[in-house]
Amino acid sequence: MKKIGNKGQGAMEYLMTYGWAILVVMIVGVVLWQLGVFGGGPGTATATDFSKIKPLNPGEIQLTANKNISAIFLNGAGNTITLTAANITFTAPSGATCGPAAYAKLAGTTGVIPNLNVVGNTLSVGQGDTFDLTIDGCTNLGTTGGRYSSEICMVYDIEVGGFTRTRIECGKVSGPIA
User: Fold this and answer.
1) Torsions phi, psi for 27 (to 5 deg)
2) Are strands 68-75 and 62-63 parallel, antiparallel or unpaired?
3) Are strands 102-106 and 53-55 parallel, antiparallel or unpaired?
4) Which numeric CATH code is attached to 46-176?
């Protein structure tokens, strides 16, 4: 009988030594990516944590000097939704706020729904359709060229199994103040 020897032990030692090092480098890379270190520079907007209603072009979300934030969202909820409210909460800059005025319209149309946050003002968005959302009345934004970090929440109704359910979709948005 032929003895196999210690060839397997050498391979295992190699994998254990360098495998752990590669794993650590990968974890550090993912952490840096999540922190936005590789986010494309100071002029790039990012959007995370949205699940059913998603920003169509996160890099184009703008918080402008005329004190509003605007974005295009895609309805990926699986059915037609009725958007009933939207708001934004800032984590940076400190003290930044936006008023209750939120305007929405189906992308490619001119019919704006004036203040979604007033009962009765709603926007119906079909599955796979996009809509523009603008939230006005922002104050204490800091200076143009600075950065903001915020959470956008939208309240919508959706029919599930023959019943209308109210859902809330929230996600984080950050980017430059234009």
Assistant:
1) -65, -45
2) antiparallel
3) unpaired
4) 2.60.40
